[in-house]
Write a structure and sequence with these properties.
The complex is a heterodimer of chains A (about 280) and B (about 150).
Chain A lengths: L4 H15 L6 E3 H21 L10 H28 L7 H17 L26 H20 L3 H11 L10 H14 L10 H13 L2 H19 L4 H8 L2 H13 L3 H4 L3
Helix pairs in contact in A: 1-2, 2-3, 3-5, 5-10, 6-7, 9-10, 9-11
Chain B lengths: L2 H19 L1 H4 L8 H17 L2 E3 L5 H8 L10 H18 L6 H13 L6 H26 L1
The chains are: A mainly alpha (about 280), B mainly alpha (about 150).
């Protein structure tokens, strides 16, 4: 959906007036650029949902108005979703996870400027999710991030809290201070156990690592990837009611996990890759 | 003539009209602008906006600036156009220097008070001493408040 600059400028001018409360007749180029981005961000909200009929092009002003309404609704929905999730949120002692989810995200909702700077993400989302949030900014990025965090919480909540902490400690003694993804440690732990058909709970022996290593060496890369994906499919079907979105999110770790396993096996460093 | 040029010309025509209308208010102080004066003012306005990297919407600051200074004892018909051109330059410069924190009216107010007062009609003193010191103090205060935050 392309609009000419002449169609967009009046909207920017109107925003500039509101932004300055009509107390300034001029704005800096930087401010004008920011407001133009704000207008385009709102218009783009319509493109995402494909809600504007392509044959009947609406005016830029109308597209902006519709997009802005969608944006306000999106912010409200995301905030409500976040507020529900945060009630039972567990960081399992990891400071970065805790600070990012409880403080940074709530800070976003406090300071997000939906009218004049909706394209700004404001926070840095320091806690890394399994699937990175890319290609979007502002509330789109935060909505995606909150969704990913909810998947992690869903996954982890099926395990006893003490057990999660035990695995994390076993994997990395000072995990509380680290900036790694918590969920993938547990996911790899479970998949690793399933790989060698070891019961989940407690920790593996030297023999278990040898069995895992043998399995990795006997598999081609794509075979290993398929095996882990199938195990993940079974896990999500059995324990998480086959939730497809959860599966897709967790599957995002499989490719990396395969690389780590193959390298870990090659250099005899499997214990650094996962806890079984 | 394409559509864009026509829009620009119409917009410029509106702006010329707005500025010329100010003559009704300034004539009793012995000040008036001709068509060519206004065109020159608008041309200079374009240049200084580009130089200061600013965009103006609507009728711009010119009518208000003229109204603010028209009864100054230091402005008379002979120096009217050149003074307004310089005041326009100073205004946009200091909109940036005060980091958008002053409204148009506040800045114009400071400028007028200083111009007639301590600057005694000197545009150089207004730009390079009075406003510069004021802006410096303002930026230091902002930096201090920023550090404290």
């Amino acid at each position: 959906m392309d609009y000419e600059i002449e169609e967009l400028l009046p909207i920017v001018a109107e925003l500039a007036e509101k932004c300055t409360s009509k107390e300034s007749t001029s704005i800096s180029y930087e401010k004008a650029r920011q407001l133009m981005e704000a207008v385009l961000y709102c218009i783009h909200q319509n493109v995402e949902e494909n809600s504007l009929c392509s044959r009947e092009k609406v005016s830029a002003k109308e597209a902006y108005r519709l997009g802005y309404e969608k944006l306000v609704k999106k912010v409200k929905e995301t905030q409500n979703f976040y507020n529900e999730m945060i009630v039972n949120f567990k960081a399992y002692g990891n400071e970065n996870y805790y600070n990012t989810v409880t403080k940074a995200i709530s800070g976003f909702f406090m300071y997000y400027d939906v009218k004049f700077a909706p394209q700004e993400t404001i926070i840095t989302m320091d806690y890394p999710t399994i699937c990175p949030v890319t290609g979007c900014t502002g509330i789109d990025a935060i909505a995606q991030y909150v969704e990913y965090i909810s998947y992690e919480q869903r996954f982890l909540s099926a395990l006893p809290e003490a057990y999660v902490v035990e695995v994390l400690l076993k994997f990395q003694r000072n995990y509380k201070k680290q900036f790694d993804n918590i969920c993938s440690v547990l996911l790899r732990h479970i998949l690793g156990c399933l790989c060698i058909e070891r019961k989940i709970g407690g920790f593996g022996t030297e023999q278990d690592y040898i069995r895992l290593d043998k399995m990795i060496k006997e598999c081609e890369k794509n075979e290993l990837q398929e095996k882990l994906t199938n195990l993940l499919t079974g896990l999500v079907e059995n324990k998480y009611q086959g939730e497809e979105r959860l599966f897709e999110y967790l599957k995002g770790d499989v490719e990396n996990f395969v690389e780590y396993l193959r390298n870990g096996s090659r250099y005899d460093k499997l214990k650094r890759v996962l806890v079984i | 003539m394409d559509g864009n040029t026509l829009v620009e010309l119409l917009s410029e025509k509106n702006q010329i009209q707005k500025v010329l209308e100010m003559n009704q208010k300034t004539e009793r102080f012995g000040l008036a602008l001709g068509d060519e004066d206004v065109k020159l003012l608008l041309e200079k306005r374009k240049d200084v906006l580009k130089e200061q990297q600013r965009i103006e919407f609507g009728e711009g600051i010119l009518p208000k600036l003229i109204f603010t200074f028209c009864d100054s004892a230091y402005i008379y018909q002979d120096n009217y156009v050149t003074t307004i051109i310089r005041l326009q330059e100073i205004f946009y410069l200091y909109k940036n220097e005060f980091m958008e924190e002053l409204t148009d009216d506040e800045l114009l107010g400071f400028m007028r008070t200083a111009f007639d007062g301590v600057c005694e009609g000197s545009l150089e003193y207004l730009e390079e001493t009075f406003l510069e010191e004021l802006a410096h103090g303002f930026r230091s205060r902002e930096a201090f408040c920023g550090d404290r935050k």
